[in-house]
Amino acid sequence: MIFIKYIVALIICCISSTILYAHGITGADQEFLINNVGPQIGPYMYLGAKHMVTGYDHLLFLAGVIFFLYRLKDVALYVTLFAVGHSTTLLLGVLGGLHVSPYLVDAVIGFSVVYKAFENINGFKTLGFQPNMKAAVLIFGFVHGFGLSTKLQDLAISADGLITNMVSFNIGVEVGQLVALSAMLIGFNIWRRSDSFLHHAYTTNVCLMVAGFILIGFQLTGYFVA
Questions:
Q1: Contacts of 51 (CB under 8 A, 6+ apart)
Q2: Please, which residues have CB within 8 angstroms of residue 204's CB and are 6 or more apart in sequence?
Q3: Could you tell me the residue range of the domain that residue 204 belongs to?
Q4: Tens digit of each residue's pLDDT (9 = 90 or more) over 126-177
Q5: In-domain check, residue 20
């Protein structure tokens, strides 16, 4: 029950944060990135970790990915695929200058949450086919990486020390992901020991789908309004 409350709280955070700013980089963090010149390994690692830990859309997707993964080696495999995906497009987007609309990218990220939750409730089997989960996690990892890169590109970060800073930021993202993942795994393992896990699994994934649809709706609205 505690983990259900965590998921619900995360979804509420998703809704309220989407209304406010879509979890972009703001305040003192934004000011630092705009004004910084030269390599800053520590601060960029911190910002990368902070962005992942507070990135509710990334966390919702990760929660969906590991929801029914009981073996640690399976968790490691899928999280590695996700990390390879978002690391590739994060660095390629910023260093290679590949820019896409942040609204559209975040809408697809919202769709990734819907997709995984739908798979968790055997939605695809009901439709008569089963997509390759590994390929899906990798592909959505690419999309999540573009979501990270667009936040940075919009701030016009200095080219001085850019490679060092982006690698540091990406390392921070991975550290933040491990921290968030560890907390979720502990929560899931505790929850799975109770009878309520399977009883509430369907409802929880429906809630994840609703959160994903809300993300899609707000981002598409932002795209057309902007």
A1: 23, 25, 148, 151, 172, 173, 176
A2: 4, 7, 67
A3: 2-15+39-221
A4: 888 889 999 999 999 999 998 888 888 877 788 888 899 899 999 999 999 9
A5: no
pLDDT (0 to 100) of residue 4? 53
Please report the pLDDT score of residue 154 as a whole number.
78
Reading the block at residue 212, the tokens are 């994903």
Mean pLDDT of 66-75: 94
pLDDT in tens, 5-26: 555 555 555 554 444 444 566 6
In the numeric block, the tokens 């003192």 are attached to 28
Structural domain contains residue 28: no
Residue with token string 């540091």: 168
* Residue 57 domain flag: yes
85 near 138, Cβ under 8 Å? yes
Angle between helices 162-192 and 196-225 (to 10 degrees): 150
Residue 222 near residue 109 (C-beta atoms within 8 A): no
In single-letter form, the type of residue at position 74 comes to D
Query: What's the pLDDT score for residue 187?
Result: 92
Q: What is the pTM of this model?
A: 0.86
User: How many structural domains compose the chain?
Assistant: 1
- Token readout for 56 is 């509710």
CA 44 – CA 170 distance, rounded (Å): 8
* DSSP for residue 194: S
CA dist., res. 21 & res. 101, Å (int): 15
Which amino acid, 77? L
Residue at 9 is within a domain: yes
